[in-house]
Amino acid sequence: xxxxxAEHLYKVFGRRPDEAVRRLESGSGRDxxxxxxxxxxxxxxxxxxxxxxxxxxxxxxGSGKSTLLRMLNGLLEPxxxxxxxxxxxxxxxxxxxxxDVRANKISMVFQHFALFPQRSVLENAAYGLExxxxxxxxxxxxxxxxxxxxxxxxxxxxxxxxxxxGMQQRVGLARALATDAxxxxxxxxxxxxxxxxxxxxxxxLLELQKRLKKTIVFITHDLNEAMRLGDRIAVxxxxxxVQLGTAEDIxxxxxxxxxASFIQDVDRSRVLTAATVMTEPQSGGEADACGCExxxxxxxxxxxxxxxxxxxxxxxxxxxxGGVVGVVxxxxxxxxxxxxxxxxxxxxxxxxxxxxxxxxxxx
Length: 363
Ligand SMILES: Nc1ncnc2c1ncn2[C@@H]1O[C@H](COP(=O)(O)OP(=O)(O)OP(=O)(O)O)[C@@H](O)[C@H]1O
Fold this sequence. Notes:
By secondary structure, the protein is of the alpha/beta class. The chain folds into two domains: 49-267, Rossmann fold; 274-337, CBS domain Like (Alpha-Beta Complex). It is built from 15 helices and twelve strands. Strand 7 (183-187), helix 9 (195-212) and strand 8 form a beta-alpha-beta unit. Adenosine-5'-triphosphate is lined by residues 13, 39, 41, 59, 61-67, 221. One of its GO terms (biological process) is glycine betaine transport.
């Protein structure tokens, strides 16, 4: 069962929202409604998030990301549609039932760290557990563990203003992890950080995720961040999800001109993998017969290029059991960099070079 499902979610702000949904369903656009003073923030959003997945919602400012996220944790009631969490319809829960789910099963990590300045790092990390009513010794033990997970062991007694931005965000992450919630909702969590620290946090999240296997919905306006983090990505525009897929789907098969224009500046060699460029291994070929360097299907194309420069023949792609599942000839890599999917064409008028005179070694 999916951990989280959104079924035909709509959120309309303003007058007569139900009528607005009917108009949207019968083809009216967001701009038509806006002319009447109504904002369609989210229009017909459907998707599911599997346990252990990082699901990224990416879009420009005003595209509806935060509104969507707030419907996923029940902070906002959808105008139409349902949110199912482990099969349970959040939209049908009582206020109390919803509070329980939010306190115990869902954690939020915000862009602005939302730390209490007059509480220690440990108390901040334990805050979610305090809300759950967990006794002090137990919550301090779990908060200490969570701080260790995010690399902040030893900082428990410090105050938030003694920490850098990146460290403060890690306290926010520790707070979310300490509650043992199954679902983490991260709203532009790394957007306020400097680029290098941001990258560091992305790496750390991916590293933690390998161990913890949480289900994460991550909101961002940054396509590169979406591509680095997302197992699946929903691209939003003007309230609608315009494409839903893996980073590879979006890069290789953009759904429309809007998505295509978005991906123009993405360095594809740092997103796409050997699996996208490899060809069938030829039986009896060199790739599986030698001890040269090899790659795995998920090696980034940029790294395959580096290996290819060191290996005198197509690079072998091996799976976890060591079997060759494909090869990457250098011409494929050059074609990839130059965005040329075709094979080399034979030369139609080879130029004959004059034969070189043999130069005697003794001369
Ligand atoms: N409470 C509200 N009342 C009226 N309109 C709202 C409300 N909340 C959001 N909106 C409108 O809904 C649309 C989507 O807003 P939302 O904040 O969800 O977008 P976003 O993609 O998260 O943008 P940002 O990245 O700037 O936060 C915007 O046009 C916004 O002005």
